[in-house]
TrEMBL record:
This is Beta-phosphoglucomutase. Its cofactor is Mg(2+). The record marks S114, K145 as: Important for catalytic activity and assists the phosphoryl transfer reaction to Asp8 by balancing charge and orienting the reacting groups. Its EC number is 5.4.2.6. It comes from Sunxiuqinia dokdonensis. One of its GO terms (molecular function) is beta-phosphoglucomutase activity. Binds 2 magnesium ions per subunit. The active site is at D9 (nucleophile), D11 (proton donor/acceptor). Belongs to the HAD-like hydrolase superfamily. CbbY/CbbZ/Gph/YieH family. Pfam families: Hydrolase.
Length: 226
């Protein structure tokens, strides 16, 4: 395999906004009288806003009308945005910016593939919006992960075939989306949780392009999973 492009999820890969999502969903759940824990929040990783609301409603065995769902989802997003507008560049996860800069300098194309509709704002707050050759976010896709739409659109925007793309993901649904797209997937986080990824690393701190290339050269390290 020749690596021609790297596609990155946003939350949990480049920056950790999970804490802000949790605070916003927790406030909403409290208003609905639903118990919502950090463990429950893990169920929302890589999931769209409306699907996340459905999960929370199922946890509390609650039902809402479509209009009420839209109102609560918008309310959650406003609470979340209040936090995001206070984000600074130093909230980038360790090593992420350095790794992206290195692969770009090597000629590998870079895209963002995120379910978040707030991705452009977050990139702006982190001062890295100019680092990506293409940005595909929740405003441009109709199907949520594990559907491969977001990554296939990213590859198309980069004019790179899926089999030449490497995806970096921290969520189970995201890993499945990458594999469904026919791409290699490097998981960020726990190997047990992300067992379907082709390889898993704890993060980008100390991880360089040479480490990525070595994964493909050592068959004992990286067995591509169908």
């Amino acid at each position: 395999m020749k690596i021609k492009a790297c596609l990155f999820d946003l939350d949990g890969v480049i920056v950790d906004t999970a804490k802000y999502h949790f605070l916003a969903w927790k406030k909403l759940a409290d208003e609905l009288g639903i118990s919502f824990s950090e463990e429950n929040n893990e169920l929302l990783k890589g999931v769209s806003r409306m699907q996340s609301l459905e999960i929370i409603l199922n946890l509390g065995k609650k039902t809402l009308t479509d209009d009420e769902k839209l109102r609560f989802a918008d309310k959650k997003n406003q609470v979340y945005l209040d936090q995001i507008y206070r984000m600074k560049a130093d909230e980038l996860l360790p090593g992420a910016k350095e790794f992206i800069e290195e692969i770009k300098q090597s000629g590998i194309k870079v895209a963002l593939g995120s379910a978040s509709k707030n991705a452009p704002l977050i990139l702006q707050q982190l001062e890295i919006e100019d680092m990506f050759d293409a940005i595909v976010d929740g405003n441009e896709v109709t199907e949520a992960k594990p559907d491969p739409e977001v990554f296939l659109k990213g590859a198309s925007a980069l004019q790179v075939e899926p089999q030449n793309c490497v995806v970096f993901e921290d969520a189970i649904a995201g890993v499945e989306a990458a594999k469904n797209a026919g791409m290699v997937c490097i998981g960020i986080g726990d190997p047990a949780t992300l067992s379907q990824a082709d390889h898993v690393i704890p993060g980008f701190e100390g991880f360089r392009l040479s480490n990525l290339i070595n994964l493909f050269e050592d068959d004992n390290e990286l067995k591509l999973k169908s």
